[in-house]
Design brief:
By secondary structure, the protein is an alpha/beta fold. It is built from 14 helices and twelve strands.
Length: about 325
Amino acid sequence: MKTVYFDVESYEEQFLKDNNNGNYILVNEPLNDLDKINPEYADADIISVFTTSRVNRKVLEQFQNLKLIALRSVGFNHIDLDYCREHNIAVVNSPGYGNQSVAEFALALLMDVSRKVTASYDEYKNAKVTPANLMGTELCGKTIGIIGLGAIGTAFAQIAYGLDMKILGFDKFPKAELESKFNVKYTDFDTLLKESDFISIHAPLTKENYHMFNEESFNKMKNTAIIINTGRGELIDTSALFNALINKKIAGAGLDVLENEQTMTDFDYMIGLNRLDKLTLEQTIINSRLFQLDNVIITPHIAYNTKEAVNRILNTTVCNIDAFINGKIQNNVI
């Protein structure tokens, strides 16, 4: 079978070369619907992509023999699953690779915003230190609301418990062991909004929770609250977040993900704004304005990016592909 890996970083190449036999191609660029795919890839039986690819119907229609999409990620909202179901294309992911990495990064964002680490660095670098502007907030004894207590949310709860924080949880499937082990108190969404000093989002994106943080949500939060998002950008209404920050409805934000974040770094979009619809263009403009706020830290979707996590991704991906070639489907998402 022919396998084409897209979104391949330089540090992934040697592993993939050492662990692939037969017909495979490594491609540094992501898949997207801006241009037709290289004809050399069109007969691929298997493709593997990261979250920087946008694999919609327009893209998938160009592959003649596609049987498997092997995701180098947990999330799959960048894949047209309906098309895959219609055409009997299996989609498998790489679960569990970054639980600890993402949880630790969420803490890093929370510490940065609450203790004004980057702001302090910027002032010191520019020889304009104003201690009154750099006064932070302790985490110990405060209430942290965790949205989504799957593997990553659970790892974050363990960290918060170690910091002697009070933990509120919001999840469809409460786990009794988290209540006893980390003193997690499950509650409804509104109560979590009202009572949390900090909120950390660890939920996958679904049709039901799109823009779960909107104007109404921010109005219910404490004006001293800080929100952290290492889940998916579309869980937060960008415009509502920006307004909440500039109107001091909340105190700050640490974001590793943004709505339509690809438009911030994808050169194709940067030189062709006509490719953006009205909503995406508005979100891109607001994303740019978020960077200008002193109480916001934004990083380029790197919470997963540790040596340990990347190795787990690659190992799982190769195992998923080998299993499929041998007639088994593991880590199926549809």
